[in-house]
Amino acid sequence: MAKEESLDPKWSPEVERQYAYLTRGCAEIIGGDQLKRKLAKSIESGKPLRAKLGVDPTAHDLHLGFTLPLSRLRAFSDLGHTAVMIVGDATAMVGDPTGKNKARPQLTREMVDDFAKSYLDQTATVLDMDKVEVRRNSDWLHGLGFTGLIGLAAKATVAQILARDDFSKRYAGGEPIHLHEMIYPLMQAYDSVVVEADVEIGGHDQLFNLLLGRDLQREAGQEEQACLLTPLLVGLDGSKKMSKSFHNYIGVSEPANEMFGKVMSIPDDLMEDYFTHLTSMDLDEVAALFVGDVNPRELKDKLGQAIVTRFWDATQAADASETFRRVISEKQDPDDMPDLLLEGKLEGGSIGLINLIVLAGFAASNGEARRLIKQGGVRIDGVAITDERSRISPQNGQVLKVGKRKYARFVCG
RNA sequence: GGGGAGAUGCCGGAGUGGUCAAACGGGGCGGACUGUAAAUCCGUUGGCUAUGCCUUCGAAGGUUCGAGUCCUUCUCUCCCCA
After folding, report:
1. Coil, strand or helix: which one is A408?
2. For the whole model, what pTM was predicted?
C-alpha cells in the first residue's frame, strides 16, 4: 500500500485530505491509488463519487459493529459525494454465507420487508437519510430471470468461490454448502455494476464479495470500484466479532443506561479499538489517551459517555454514567425501576419468595429462583434472604433486587 | 444408482443396556473481590405441588424388568465410488 502511494506523490492536498477522511480506521483498502485518482477527477469535474454500501436486512437490531461501514458511508456524504445504500432485499432471501458455518434460514418476503424498514430507521442514527440514495436490489435482481442468472453464474468458477475461507472451511468440515449460497457473492457484486459504484464499503469479511464486484465491473466495461474494508469490531467478550448470534453486541437503539453499562463491561484492552471505531475522535487524540498513567475506569467512562452521546445525547450520557456509578459501583438503588403490582397476588398478606421472583419476571422458573436465593442473589431493601422457603409480607415501596441489575418496587393494593 | 459415516442439553463434544438429567469445555447466571457489568477466584446451569415425580439425547415404532446406548422404518447431513 505504501509503495503504491509513493509511486504517485503528486496528489493535491485536497485529494489527500479527502482520502484520509474517507479511509479513517479502515482495515484494508483495495485500489487506494484508484480512489485517489477518482477523487482528483471528482474534485476537478465537480461530479461526486458514488459510494456503495450494501446491507442485507436479516434481523431487527442494528448493532455497533454495523456502524463502522455506515460511518464510512457517512464520510462520503459529508464530503458531498453520493452515498448509495443498497437494501439487499433480494440477497437477504438468499443469505450471505460469509463467516457462516451453516446455511442461514430462508427468510420470507414479509420478514425481509419488515427488517428493511427497521434497518433504515436505525441507519438514521448514523446517516443523514436525506442525503442517501436508497436502492433495493430486488429491483434488478428479481427481474434477471433464469437466463440472466445463468449469465451471472458464468462469471465465476466453483474453484474461485470455494477458495473463500468460509466455504473451504465448511467444505473441509463436512458442512453442507448450497448452490444458492455460492450465487450470493455474484448477486451482490452485480449490484455494483447496476449502481455504477466508484467505491464500495464493507466489513473486512466481505473482501471476497467486494472484489468480485470489481471483476464484474471490469467485464461490464466500467472502471473498477475501490474497496474500503472496515475492521470487524470485536464484541463485548473481547474475542469474537460483535454479532447478534454471539450475544456480545450493543444495539444502536438500546437504552442509554444499557448501552453505557455494556461499554463498561468490555475488556480494558478493547478500549482503544472502540475509541477509534465508535467515536469520531481524532486518531492522534485517541492515541494520546493511552499514553502514560491512565485510570482504565475513567477512560472507560469517557468512552461510554462518548458512545452514548453519539446515539442519544450528552445529558443522557452523563446520567447513564452517574447511574452506573451509583448502582454498580456503590450498589445503591437506581432512581427509577419498574413497579411490581402485587394486588391480588398475596395470600393473607404474604407470598412465597420464589413465587415473588418469578412473578417479577426475574427468573424463568421456580428452580432458577430457588437457585438465585440460595446463592445470595436476592435482596429486599438491601437485606439478603437466603432461605428459599421464606414467605414475604411485602410493604408498599420496598425494593426487590435480584442479581446485580434487576430491581422492582413493590406496589401493594 | 452403490458403499460408508453421522444427528446428544444454549453451543461444542463425551457417552454403547442399568450407578445418565447425561462427563468435559465454552457461554449464561450468582457470589466474593475490584478501578467497571474488566481480570481473577468460587459456586451454579431441564421442569415440578420435590429425599420423590415428569420431560429431554433427529422422528416414529419395537426388544428388554430397564434404552442416549440394541432392532426396524423414516427424515436430514457429510464423504467416497458411478
Report:
1. strand
2. 0.84
Strand B closer than 7 A to residue A357 Cβ: no
pLDDT one-digit tens code per residue, A306-348 = 999 999 999 999 999 999 998 888 888 888 889 999 988 888 8
Sign, CA dihedral A376-A380-A385-A387, equals: negative
State the helix-helix crossing angle for A296-311 and A256-264, rounded to 10 degrees.
150
CATH architecture of A256-329: Orthogonal Bundle (1.10)
Note the CATH number of domain A339-411: 3.10.290.10
pLDDT (tens digit, 9 = 90+) per residue, A275-303? 999 998 989 999 988 887 778 888 999 99
Question: How far apart (Å, rounded) are the C-alpha atoms in residues A179 and A326?
Answer: 55
What residues does each domain of chain A span? 2-232, 256-329, 339-411
Is strand B less than 7 A from the beta carbon of A324? yes
Phi first, then psi: what are they for A50, rounded to 5°?
A: -105, 115
Which nucleotides in chain B lie less than 7 Å from some protein C-beta?
27-32, 35-39, 43-50, 77-79
**Beta strands A378-380 and A50-55: pairing type?**
unpaired
Q: Is the CB of A272 under 7 A from strand B?
A: no
Low-confidence residues of chain A, pLDDT below 50?
Answer: 1-5
A401: left (phi over 0), alpha (psi -120 to 50) or beta: beta
Q: Does the CB of A396 fall within 7 Å of any strand B atom?
A: no
